Amino acid sequence: MGQVLEKVQNLLQPKKIRLFMLGVESSGKTTMLYRMKLGEVVRTVPTIGLNVNEIKYNDIVFEITEAGGVYKIYSIFHHFMPGKDGMILIVDSSFLDHKELLQTTFKTCINEIYANKKIPVLILANKSDIRKFTDMEILQYIGVDNIEDKIFYKIIPTSCISGDGINEAFNWLYQTFTNQ
Ligand SMILES: Nc1nc2c(ncn2[C@@H]2O[C@H](COP(=O)(O)OP(=O)(O)O)[C@@H](O)[C@H]2O)c(=O)[nH]1
Ligand SMILES: [Mg+2]
Known about the structure:
Oligomer: single chain
Order of helices and strands: HEHEEEHEHEH
Number of strands: 6
Bound molecules: guanosine-5'-diphosphate, magnesium ion
Distance between the termini: 30 Å
CATH topology: Rossmann fold
CATH superfamily: P-loop containing nucleotide triphosphate hydrolases
């Protein structure tokens, strides 16, 4: 009986997808998380430590972890990867800084996610309202070429200010994780 109840509970509980959000300081991670969760622009302070949010979209709960802090701690981000289903990589499309740090961290993080298929990565070309770089330049900045065999990605321009692209981003996440 207990086992049957457990199975029914599992069926009723929404599927949970765990994502790690990576992006250099000020790319808009915290603003994006609150925009996704609350639909509004919240004034942020620099994130120290982990900022974990659960956002429900249709019948999926996305648990999104933002790890903030000074650049030195990027070297420990890969410890958060086991158990994650994918990543959100957020880029300030008006200012592509800390390229090497981002590329190294991204690669080490991907290598720590255990998966027997390509890992979904949603790339948000954020701040599209003040954008200066093309998708191609952004993909080069991230170093997608070095890691293309391990990931399955989509780049979507977003703006936390206007809300542009955010529905498209959720739709991609939803389609990707319902088809798995
Ligand atoms: N113009 C513009 N500014 C943004 C956008 N998203 C975030 N910001 C601003 O970028 C700054 C850094 O945002 P924050 O979320 O704290 O970045 P984090 O360090 O990556 O968490 C803040 O001043 C935000 O208001 C956007 O889409 N457009
Ligand atoms: Mg932050």
